[in-house]
Amino acid sequence: MNSRTEQFPGGTLLQAVAARAEVSAAFHAAAVLFVTVLTVIAAQVSVPLPFTPVPFTLQPMVVLLGGAALGSRLGMSSQILYLAIGLAGLPVFAASPVLPQGFGRLLGPTGGYLMSYPIAAFAAGYLAERGFDRRYLTSVVAMAAGLAIIFTCGVSWMAFGIPNIGLSAAIATGLVPFIPADIVKIFLAASVLPAAWRFLR
Known about the structure:
Layout: H1 13-21, H2 25-44, E1 46-47, E2 56-57, H3 59-70, H4 72-87, H5 103-106, H6 111-129, H7 136-160, H8 167-174, H9 179-200
Antiparallel strand pairs: 1-2
Helix pairs in contact: 2-3, 2-4, 3-4, 3-6, 3-7, 3-9, 4-6, 6-7, 7-8, 7-9
């Protein structure tokens, strides 16, 4: 076969789509902005939980899918842009009755999760660039690796940064309640990119 997809054996989904369409760098910038907007929208789909300051949101799934689709550098850029917009004071972080928007949100108990997004997107994109997003099982590995970064940073921030509640309490409130739902999200997210690759071929 002589498809454009095969010219990128280690490339990302975005590179394959861009090659098919023969588009300019503006397409890449638009794709980064699109993932940033999706992250903002996912933040608004939040469910506050009474036993933890960390709300349940769809953001991690968007961060990881966006990173895998865009690649390491562009995926990280989309999340840096998201944080920059939030730091500028725009209401892009998850709604909270007690946590402020703007820079103050990064100094709160959820700051570690937010600051991990560029790193997690980079990791998911790095693995996708090496073909992890083309098969379901390896896609699960890529999503799980990114999610592990998010939880490691988030729990560590709660335990030793702000609010400094200790490791056991941070695990109990910042990790354990989210494991069942996030396992489901990983399996769902991992099915998206292999399906997209099959569609391209």
